[in-house]
Write a structure and sequence with these properties.
By secondary structure, the protein is α+β, with helices and mostly antiparallel strands. It has 13 helices and 16 strands. The structure holds zinc ion. The site of zinc ion has 5 residues, from loops.
Length: 448
């Protein structure tokens, strides 16, 4: 766990000085008080209303991307955006945007999240950042704040990817990583992504129009639940995301020799499952072998022929490694391969792995991190710097714009479950930090 120890303790008088005199007066008035500008109760009301779309018996939601429940919820969101005076548009990938004009000709400051869920999901993943973004706009309206940058709220399409097995779909198209090749993918009912986009009122042949050119955005901000236990355990209300971890995945096959379980002496066996089992432990040992937040997983082992009376001759298993630092992943993999080789020699087996996936880590922008830190400090809220172990839309956005993420605690670290929970108090604080971060960035970015 990385505590927020980067900055030495600053005397309160100095903090006051910095807040009052270093910032323009209007902004100091805006951010220098612990009073919330966002209306936590109003935010709670919209989150509770949103939770009715796709509600499941367990009290969470099943509102997967490209479903009737998702479509109905988007109708509700569009209405909220219009009510807040936003100019609403939907791009050909189904991403919903609500624009609030700025006073200068500057690139847009974009913030938002997603409202689709996993099967049997909860009420906070994505929803907090989506409704929090709309609440920020309502609060700015209430306070009659005019910003220099145009502000835009976004609801990304199909972040979870339960439908079509394709996550971060909307943000992936926006970032230029997905294109027309995805349109013919079929779901369980034989409907394609193109069919669903048409249902969402879009023209799939214009899909690439949803791309956002590099430089078109001043930045992207996302408020999100942590989906892990760090903030809850440390009792810290705000997480400053250092970046979204990268991952690499391999598929490994261990070959031994299948033989009679009764007649083959123990010293003459080439048991592929025994070798693979040692490999599973090797992955865990190497990943645990150095300090840090890196994680490594073997999700399953499939042994063949898979009979009670036959020594397994073949075992297949995947390896997944994740960390914020790509070099750490490579270093761990090199060590794991050494251990696999040793096991092969000990067990008379042969293990070969091929790479399946390589996703780069996405670092958050230092200036946005600093603004989040300052916004939290102006509210007397403690912060913790931490990586996001989960995939996020912001990861894709990092390719085209400076990006930052604000985390709030998830009770017991539970997510993707109806048991997912964040307190209304923490949600209100998170939305207020978003509000203040937006204003700090609006003031600072694109100054001559
Ligand atoms: Zn999410």
């Amino acid at each position: 766990m990385i505590r927020n120890t980067a900055t030495p303790p600053i005397p309160t008088t100095l903090v006051l000085w910095v807040t009052v005199f270093a910032a323009p007066l209007s902004l100091a008035q805006e951010t220098g008080s612990r009073k919330l500008h966002v209306d936590s109760q109003r935010l709670q009301g919209t989150l509770e209303r949103l939770s009715e779309f796709g509600r499941n018996p367990e009290g969470g939601v099943t509102r997967i991307g490209f479903s009737e429940a998702d479509l109905a919820a988007r109708g509700y969101i569009g209405g909220l955006m219009k009510e807040a005076g936003l100019e609403v548009r939907v791009d050909p990938a189904g991403n919903m945007f609500g624009l609030r004009a700025g006073s200068e000709r500057l690139p847009k400051l974009l913030f938002g999240s997603h409202i689709d869920s996993v099967l049997h999901g909860g009420n906070f993943d994505g929803d907090v950042g989506s409704m929090g973004a709309i609440e920020v706009i309502r609060a700015l309206n209430d306070a009659r704040v005019k910003t220099r940058h145009p502000l835009e709220v976004v609801i990304w399409t199909n972040e979870e990817g339960n439908h079509f097995g394709l996550g971060t779909l909307g943000s992936g198209v926006a970032a230029g990583l997905l294109g027309p090749e995805i349109l013919d993918r079929k779901d369980e009912q034989g409907l394609t992504i193109a069919d669903w986009l048409r249902r969402y009122g879009q023209d799939p042949s214009r899909l690439t129009d949803a791309r956002i050119p590099r430089g078109a955005l001043a930045g992207f901000l996302e408020l999100h639940i942590e989906q892990g236990p760090s903030l809850d355990e440390a009792k810290v209300p705000i997480g400053i995301v250092q970046g979204i971890v990268g991952l690499k995945r391999w598929q490994c096959v261990t070959t031994g020799s299948a033989n009679h379980a009764g007649t083959t002496p123990m010293n003459r066996r080439k048991d592929a499952l025994v070798a693979a089992s040692k490999d599973v432990l090797a992955v865990r040992d190497v990943v645990r072998g150095e300090a840090g937040r890196q994680v490594g997983t073997v999700g399953y082992v499939r042994a063949e022929p898979g009979a009670i009376n036959v020594i397994p001759g073949r075992a297949e298993f995947p390896v997944e490694l994740r960390d914020l630092d790509a070099a750490t992943i490579d270093r761990m993999w090199a060590r794991i391969q050494e251990r696999f080789k040793r096991t092969d020699e000990e067990e008379g087996a042969e293990t070969r792995c091929r790479e399946l996936e390589d996703v780069d880590p996405a670092r958050t922008d230092p200036a946005i991190q600093a603004a989040i830190r300052e916004a939290a400090k102006s509210l007397d809220l403690a912060t913790l710097d931490l990586p996001s172990g989960a995939v996020q839309d912001a990861q894709l956005l990092a390719r085209i714009a400076p990006m930052g993420m604000i985390f709030i605690p998830s009770r017991d670290g539970i997510s993707h479950s109806p048991k997912e929970f964040s307190s209304w108090h923490d949600i209100g604080n998170g939305a207020e930090v978003l509000y203040r971060t937006v204003l700090l960035l609006d003031d600072r970015l694109n100054r001559e």
